[in-house]
């Protein structure tokens, strides 16, 4: 993954390496606060910071910003370390903590007092906030602002000794009460908190503020590139002020990137904690939660999260990302990892009347489809008594129904062809079973294929169907609506009475499978109250969320399905219109698109029409499909002419593929075409380059660095990348340049 990483941060690092800034080092850090479990938003920072260290042969620290004892806990420290390891990363050296540096922070606070740049303020927090002023009005200086340094030093020492109660006084930096950046108007440095700390116990009762501690931690650890999210943009001035006014051993620099916001969930630790404490979810690792622990419990592969974060990219513009993009990468990963098996959710008994009662045919069933380069089979029993899914039979079928009907013929997956001869009914008139005949392939032409199980060989299983946690894309943003009222009542449905293949009962917890025609599932570590194994749905086989939100749901027939916390709900697959079904087939057969892409492009009339108009405008099918499905979300769709122009620019090397996301963001924001967006962003159009000659010239210009690289200093690769990109004036494809550069550097002199 790290070899493909290219963004504005890597461009900065390339420039720093070229200028020999930081002594050619790249040292990053991941600095979580141990006040909750990590979520998918943190995964982006993890992948970036650890990825940068790997890409440039540098280091990445894991450091906990534990400066608020009232919200922090050892449980969170341990869970965060487990999450990072699960994602596949390892930090440099020992785990670090802000609390490791408390004594140094305190000494530097005394230094600021002695230099006349800090003072103890006895105003309460409300008064300090009120006196800060506004964007239009300067702040009002504290009456204690000119307190003598000796007095402030004595009071700070008394604060540390525990002589005052919480809120009695604070230490503030003395900067500028009229500064246009309100954060610079004498910010707080220390406050009193008489609470035990998870590491230092009762050794301290004053604790540094985050803005004071964070930059000093970076300086102590020799961090070269301190990356945070955009909400800390204004804090950078304060970050630099502390570094300018203290005798720090090193001068780091802060850079800001966009945060990762996922729709249909919440990312605030405070709100996530509220969900846990109020019992809306079963815990931090509830499979509906956006926490990494929840995603792991749901069965999401860590590789899928890495690919998702890479696809989201690192930009300067915040955007709301659809979970459909994460689902796409989960499917792409599991397609080659999850064996295919048969499970019946809502069993309907079938009797093969022409098969003897004691006969069992053992079939050799493939575990993998033909397009997955893996081999393996399992024995699948076929007996007289079978189970099929109730949704696979209709007495009065709708138009286009290709499953079992009275007198109709279907193929059993792996098991031959059957014809429905008779429908059995219970006393209340409900369909209770089917009598069918097992036919030879020559006797009939089946219209469709269904899954099934041998009744005596199947085993009971409980299924947990996970869906979006919230109905609203952005919970808490609707006026007059409480965010908790926007919870999706069907975010977790429990299916009891389902049956599975016999050998699945012996599978290990954590094993992932594709339940054919249903989705990807993972065996949970827990069992049901009745002792049955539990399988949690990781993701559906296709994105049915949009369809569910716009299509009226059919009346719910009786079924053995009980939701975990809501009324009984029948699990029913969404059906396309006949026209969209035909279009989906055309996209596969005529244009050669993968089934998954064809399904997503025909999920509704608007998406289908948008894709068709792009084809009519001359766009190539696969690049157009990829852009629509992976780079656009919801209703954010520029005019199709602009999309085809964007693809043409990429095809003609006038724009790099990794610049697409930021160009699209600018197009949507400024309502302009791709050329205007690229110009506004300062992105130079690429021209035809002789990469080999360009690289050779750059290497020849830096013989000392070339020799050091070939002697083993592989971290200099980033130096040469930056030099080559500058020589190409941004006109080289990073991936091609990287490959050619590595080849040239590694070749014999």
Detailed description of the structure:
The chain is of the alpha/beta class and 749 residues long. Helix 16 packs across helix 18. The longest helix is centred in the N-terminal third of the chain and has 16 residues.
Summarize the helices and strands and which ones pair or pack.
Layout: H1 8-18, E1 27-30, H2 40-55, E2 59-64, H3 74-87, E3 96-97, H4 102-114, E4 118-121, H5 125-130, H6 149-161, E5 170-173, E6 188-192, E7 206-208, H7 210-221, E8 226-229, H8 236-244, E9 254-257, E10 260-262, H9 269-277, H10 292-298, H11 302-312, E11 319-321, H12 323-334, E12 339-341, E13 343-344, E14 347-352, E15 360-366, E16 377-383, E17 385-389, E18 409-412, E19 416-425, E20 431-439, E21 449-450, E22 452-454, E23 459-466, E24 492-500, E25 512-515, E26 519-527, E27 533-540, H13 545-550, E28 562-563, H14 578-589, H15 595-601, H16 605-616, H17 621-631, H18 640-651, H19 660-670, H20 674-681, H21 691-701, H22 703-710, H23 717-727, H24 734-746
Parallel strand pairs: 1-2, 2-3, 8-9, 10-11, 12-25, 14-20, 18-21, 23-27
Antiparallel strand pairs: 4-5, 5-6, 6-7, 13-24, 14-17, 15-16, 17-22, 18-19, 19-20, 23-24, 24-28, 25-26, 26-27
Helix pairs in contact: 1-23, 2-11, 7-8, 11-12, 14-15, 16-18, 19-20, 21-23, 21-24, 23-24
């Amino acid at each position: 993954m790290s070899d493909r990483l290219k963004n504005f941060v890597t461009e900065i690092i390339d420039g720093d390496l070229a200028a020999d800034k930081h002594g050619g080092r790249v040292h990053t850090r991941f600095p979580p606060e141990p006040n909750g479990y990590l979520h998918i938003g943190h995964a982006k920072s993890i992948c970036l910071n650890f990825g940068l260290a790997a890409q440039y042969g540098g280091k990445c620290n894991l450091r906990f910003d534990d400066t608020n004892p009232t919200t922090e806990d050892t449980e969170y420290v341990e869970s965060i370390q487990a999450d990072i390891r699960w994602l596949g990363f390892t930090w440099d050296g020992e785990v670090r903590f802000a609390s490791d540096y408390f004594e140094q922070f305190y000494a530097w606070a005394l230094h600021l007092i002695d230099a006349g740049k800090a003072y103890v303020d006895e105003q309460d927090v409300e008064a300090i906030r009120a006196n800060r002023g506004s964007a239009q009005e300067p702040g009002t200086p504290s009456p204690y602002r000119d307190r003598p340094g000796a007095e402030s030093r004595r009071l700070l020492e008394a604060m540390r000794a525990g002589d005052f109660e919480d809120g009695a006084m604070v230490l503030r930096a003395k900067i500028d009460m009229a500064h246009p950046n309100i954060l610079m108007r004498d910010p707080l440095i220390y406050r009193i908190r008489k609470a035990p700390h998870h590491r230092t116990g009762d050794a301290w009762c004053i604790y540094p503020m985050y803005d004071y501690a964070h930059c000093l931690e970076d300086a102590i650890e020799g961090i070269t590139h301190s990356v945070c999210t955009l909400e800390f943009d204004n804090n950078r001035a304060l970050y630099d002020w502390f570094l300018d006014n203290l005798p720090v051993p090193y001068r780091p620099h802060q850079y800001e990137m966009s945060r990762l916001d996922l729709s249909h969930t919440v990312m605030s630790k405070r709100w996530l904690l509220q969900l846990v404490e109020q019992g809306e979810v079963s815990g931090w690792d509830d499979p509906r939660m956006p926490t990494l622990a929840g995603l792991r419990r749901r069965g999401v592969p860590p590789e899928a999260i890495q690919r998702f974060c890479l696809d989201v990219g690192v930009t300067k513009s915040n955007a709301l990302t659809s979970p459909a993009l994460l689902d796409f990468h989960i499917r792409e990963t599991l397609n080659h990892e999850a064996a295919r098996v048969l499970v019946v959710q809502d069993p309907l008994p079938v009797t093969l009347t022409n098969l003897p009662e004691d006969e069992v045919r053992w079939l050799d069933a493939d575990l993998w489809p033909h397009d997955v380069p893996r081999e393996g089979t399992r024995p699948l029993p076929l007996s007289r008594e079978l189970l099929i899914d109730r949704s696979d039979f209709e007495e009065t079928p709708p138009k286009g129904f290709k499953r079992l009907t009275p007198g109709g013929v279907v193929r059993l997956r792996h098991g031959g062809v059957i014809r429905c001869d008779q429908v059995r009914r219970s006393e209340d008139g409900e369909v209770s079973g089917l009598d069918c005949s097992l036919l030879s392939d020559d006797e009939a032409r089946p219209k469709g294929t269904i899954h099934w199980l041998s009744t005596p060989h199947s085993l009971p299983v409980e299924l947990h169907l996970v869906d979006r946690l919230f109905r609203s894309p952005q919970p808490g943003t609707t006026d007059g609506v409480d965010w908790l009222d926007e919870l999706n009542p069907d975010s977790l449905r429990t299916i009891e009475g389902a049956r599975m293949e016999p050998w699945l009962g012996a599978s290990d917890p954590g094993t992932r499978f594709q339940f054919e025609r249903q989705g990807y599932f993972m065996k949970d570590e827990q069992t049901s109250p009745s002792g049955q194994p539990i399988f949690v749905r990781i993701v559906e086989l296709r994105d049915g969320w949009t369809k569910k939100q716009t299509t009226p749901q059919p009346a719910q027939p009786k079924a053995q399905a009980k939701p975990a916390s809501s009324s009984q709900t029948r699990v029913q697959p969404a059906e396309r219109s006949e026209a969209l079904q035909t279009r989906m087939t055309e996209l596969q057969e005529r244009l050669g698109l993968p089934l998954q892409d064809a399904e997503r492009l025909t999920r509704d009339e608007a998406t289908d029409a948008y894709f068709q108009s792009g084809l009519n405008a001359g766009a190539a099918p696969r690049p157009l499909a990829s852009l629509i499905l992976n780079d656009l979300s919801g209703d954010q769709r520029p005019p199709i002419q602009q999309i085809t122009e964007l693809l043409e620019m990429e095809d003609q090397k006038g724009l790099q593929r990794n610049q697409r996301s930021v160009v699209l963001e600018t197009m949507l924001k400024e309502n302009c075409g791709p050329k205007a967006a690229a110009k506004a962003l300062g992105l130079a159009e690429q021209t035809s380059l002789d990469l080999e000659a360009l690289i050779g010239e750059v290497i020849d210009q830096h013989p000392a660095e070339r020799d050091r690289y070939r002697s083993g200093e592989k971290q200099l690769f980033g130096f040469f990348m930056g030099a080559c990109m500058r020589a190409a004036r941004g006109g080289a494809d990073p991936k091609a340049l990287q490959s050619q550069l590595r080849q040239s550097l590694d070749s014999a002199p």
